[in-house]
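Write out the bound-state structure for adenosine-5'-diphosphate.
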Amino acid sequence: MSQGPPASIEAVRGAGLSKGYGEGDRRVQVLAGLDISVQLGEMLAVVGPSGVGKSTLLHLLGLLDRPDAGTLELFGTDVGSLSAAGRARWRNRRTGFVFQFHALLPEFTLEENVAMPMLIGGSPMREALAAARELLGAVGLEPRRDHFPDQLSGGEQQRGAVARALVAGPELLLADEPTGNLDAANAESVFEVLRRLHVSRGLTSVIVTHNEALAGRCDRILRLVGAASGDACSRT
Amino acid sequence: MGRPSVTVLRLLVGRYLLGLRRRTHVAAVSAVSFTAMALGAAALVVTLALLAGFQSTIRQQLAVSGVHAVLRAKVGSTLPPGDWLERLRERHGELHVRSIASGAVWCVSEGGAVPAVLAVVDTLSGVEVNRVLAARLGAGVGAEVTLATPRATLTPLGPMPLRRRVAVDRVAEARPGEDRAEVRVPLALGAALLGGAAVETVELRASDPSRAFSVASDVQTELPDGVEVISFRELNRPLLAALALERVMIGFGVALVMAVAALNLLCNLALLAAEKRADVALLGALGLEPHSVRRLFLILGIGVGALGGVIGTVIGGLTAVVLDVTRALPLPRGVFVVSHVPFRVTAGAIAVVLGVSLGAALLASLAPARAAARRDVLQGLRYE
Ligand SMILES: Nc1ncnc2c1ncn2[C@@H]1O[C@H](COP(=O)(O)OP(=O)(O)O)[C@@H](O)[C@H]1O
Ligand SMILES: [Mg+2]
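---
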């Protein structure tokens, strides 16, 4: 299900992004000169075989890693020039990340988990918990806010992770196989939440997924097929 | 964000330290480290209190039974003449002054002849022998003893040693460590035996044993030229130094318990950092900066260590006080001067133990905290 015409403003503009690991003979070039562009308000699905570099790309966009070469502009800012502290602040305030594993921290209640980015950002406890409750309401988990992660189903945990990703009010949502560990019903509920919040919060989203059906419901699909630049093709 | 958020650190520390609900593993780990630190601190406090208790008992014993200061000539063996000694006696009424001259003497009784030191003590009224001499002579109070000095008198039979027959009036307890035979006689008898009354030494003793350490400085300014005073501290220097050394060495030995506890803390922190690696990486991905991670583990380590140290110190201190007050550990009578094992908790010892536990906790936390902060966020996220 594709949406209307993409917005005209570029939220993400990556040019010539390269990333490799290892040295010498064991060098693996994962991304080689990848260009990527995501429009403001667009929901982009990234698909491709395992090991092709989907997570690597997401880590670059999420400022968890630096490219070996290439430039990255997010919302008009050249993020390549940010200091380590600036990158941490950017991750905290301007990016929401949903991981496949490590959804929630086991020692903390759902509410505390969701509040964590705001607490890390220096918000007072009361304020952070209030924001967390609001988002838990938005993902339908408000009644479970005092539960610990091991009292929640996989789908509930992942919906909690979506709430956490959005609590600090970021513009960019990055999700790395958010439904990868879930059965069809739970995958559907998580994606539904992602999709709804993407629209209601005016987000720009990049979703890595193996699920072709879910990818098809995004605005656009980016297919990564190999390390050579230009192998990435897209479909509207 | 700027400065690290205190709120988030408080939340993380609280939860990792105390654990909550089913997540008891971390809490159990910190409980083990906490207990180890507490045991180490308690052991150190009790040991230091025991040593301090014994030492103060020994010092007291020395002060009660021994001489507090000695006056002697700076040059030569006899003190200068004059009435300064009389004046000293008058001015310090509470001082017991014993002036002593001495020489060698043979003591002859039915049991045989025994060489002894002849001490002339001007405060004595009768003849006193110490236990050592009494034992060697086989003579007790009332026994007749002949004292013979090397000084000769000419008799019709040629030169003969000077001799006096006396009765023993008192047998004095030997002081700790005293092993030479000694007979003490009043001034007149001594003068006759030694042929003069030159005073060699004056022993001072305060009635109040707690003044033992200050007697020397009290009389210092009233001494004539050529007389020096040897203080209680100097008189007992070897013993006091041995006691101090003993305290340091045993304290050091027991402090090794703290070192072991600190190593346990280090291991557990490293374990915690490894176990929480993915979680810490996630926090890093959410924007927690490395210096906050470092601070988190430092607070965890120092928190466990310092809390253990404080609780252990309190437990150790209370144990020592209770053992002392209730006289719970009796000692065989006659062997020791005290009837029970004495404990003395001093502020200095408490400060040392608290300092050692805090320092040990800090040292134990530095490396794991640094390692946790340096860990790469991405690697941590891949760590499944
Ligand atoms: N830290 C790393 N060290 C070495 N190789 C890595 C590292 N991270 C990723 N890779 C390799 O890079 C390739 C792409 O990984 P990834 O981006 O996770 O793929 P995807 O998410 O598409 O499955 C894989 O072959 C992976 O083994
Ligand atoms: Mg991946």
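---
Strands of chain B lie at 69-73, 95-109, 112-121, 128-130, 144-155, 158-167, 170-172, 182-185, 201-206, 227-230.
The mean pLDDT of chain B is 84.
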